[in-house]
Amino acid sequence: MSNIGSYEDRLRNFSWSLAEQELEYVPGGTINIGWYCSDRICLKGQGEKTALLWEGLGGVEKKFTYNDIRRASNTIGAFLRGLGITDGERVCLFMDKAPELYIGVLGILKIGAIAQPLFSAFGDESLFVRLENAQTTAIMTQKKHAPKVRKILDKLPCLKRIIIIDHDGKAPLREREVAFSLEKAESVEHLDVFSTLAESPSLLHYTSGTTGQPKGVKHVHYSLIAQYLTAKWVLDIRPDDVYWCTADPGWVTGTSYGIIGPWSLGVTQCVLDSGFSAEAWYKFIQKNKVTNWYSAPTAIRSLMKAGEEIIKKHNVSSLRMLSSVGEPLNPEAVIWSEKVFGKAFLDTYFQTETGAIMITNFPGMKIKPGSMGKPFPGITGVVLDPQTYEPYPGSGKIGLIGLRPGWPSMMRAYWDNEETYRKKFKNGWYMTGDRASIDKEGYFWFVGRDDDIINTGGHLVSPFEVESALIEHPAVAESAVVSKPDPINMEVVKAFVALKAGFSPSAELDLEIMNFIRKKLSPLAMPQEIEFVGSLPKTRSGKIMRRILKAKEWGEEIGDTSTLEDD
Amino acid sequence: MADELKDIVLKYVIAEYSEDGSDPITFDTPLISGGIVDSFSMVSLKRFLENTYKISIPDDQATPEAFDSVDKIAVLVRRFTKA
Fold this sequence. Notes:
The structure holds two protein chains of two kinds. Chain A is α/β, with parallel strands linked by helices. Chain A is 30% helix and 23% strand. In chain A, strand 3, helix 6 and strand 4 form a beta-alpha-beta unit. Chain A starts with 6 loop residues before the first helix and ends in a 13-residue tail after the last helix. By secondary structure, chain B is mainly alpha-helical. Chain B has helices at residues 2-17, 42-53, 70-82.
């Protein structure tokens, strides 16, 4: 029997207080995610249970018990306090999937500061806009990523401290830098955990917007209630599981279900801090006897591409529960996983803003390959008429996915951007920006985004951000960025570029522009294809019509072109 | 020829993907499984090889395994330059 038991029964009797009671949280009292994910597990007599099995490059392994992560997070928290970091300040974690990233989040939360994890492949421009927006005061990073921070330091007077977690003394520390070694630091047994309340801010994750700069999504400590219960009921995490979430904590899945969900449940989780290869992943599953695996469609499709022979060389029979997130899981991937692993990947759906899984396939439920599943108990999900923002009656109509606000892990604000936050709500619904339909049995079917945002490999990329960076290249006069279909990543970035006078299209320039964006923004934002054009389609008022370019890429009808500028 | 090819690829990989303070990259350093080049960045590395050696590498052969070191990339490129 799965943790959720009967979905229908849960729907009938649901209250978030179920999770509050299991976590022994008293409404109005203190709730600190850092404490819940470490100290509480130890107080329940699980201190010597393994919390983290970590493997890095070259097969280097580290193991942490819950007592270890309790003390280590105390140590990081005390170190930050010693630097003068106080509650409410933003502390960025900008590193690979090192143990310090996972434990550091807990340490930051324990002192009441706000953890701001950022994907370590971000280029200096992406890093700068996020640190500047959040007015981040400290950043924890690795020496390999420190040059990107140094490059933008002069523009960030608010950034008081750069903490290098693996400083080896070979090069001197620079302005505002300080070394910290978790292994060498004196272990702190007792830390005065800050008494955060339900609405105290916890995490700040950045997500791309259609226009304007990335938005900082503010979450609060009460999000724990939803992350705990969804990890238990949807991912079906059980006490004896060895759980592996492949997401990077630079993104919301990596914190909600790579840190908070599993550790608040006291489960053993493992982390592989190296690049993707099918061989390495299957070996990792075999070695750690992974039972519960949460991954992404892009990774699953890459594994499909690697073939079945490689699976037969490994023992992956330990796998009990498979789930997926990031983008719609295509039916072929569901059918493939049933064939090769003997069980289907269950697709889950949520967003940075929702903080926890909203619509999903549940263990024990009839799976319709390609469907998003049904709303989590306590979540009211509908498909709205895009004109009236009223739910469509009946089934089958394609509209906008709306969610009734009020669940525990819902974002509380976009950082310093009240206007954009307010626009996310229409007629009493939180607007996800995604389109779907609902079938007669209540299953949701994803159709696509309702805006120009590109979902590549489960990560959102803003065309505006890429276009803004492109025109900083000396050869680019103007550009338009759209998605194009991709068999592995679902969508990838494509750029249409008009060059300045004196520049001509060439293979060398094409590569130069690709690398320019990769380094400035991130590999995700790098156009996988650049098409040089003489001019871009525009309205008579001069606005670039991305819609036309995108329709061509997807083989769709171009639609109304009456406002198109004459050649 | 082979050594020259590997030198050119290594020089490009260091210039484009290595960060100050990182461990040095050599011919057999794992690039993809070592997290130095991610799957998105592989596209620009493939483009570099195709531009430089005037070849076309089919997508089904541009695998993480085939791109996992300068040594392996050289084997892949030679297969197409000989064809």
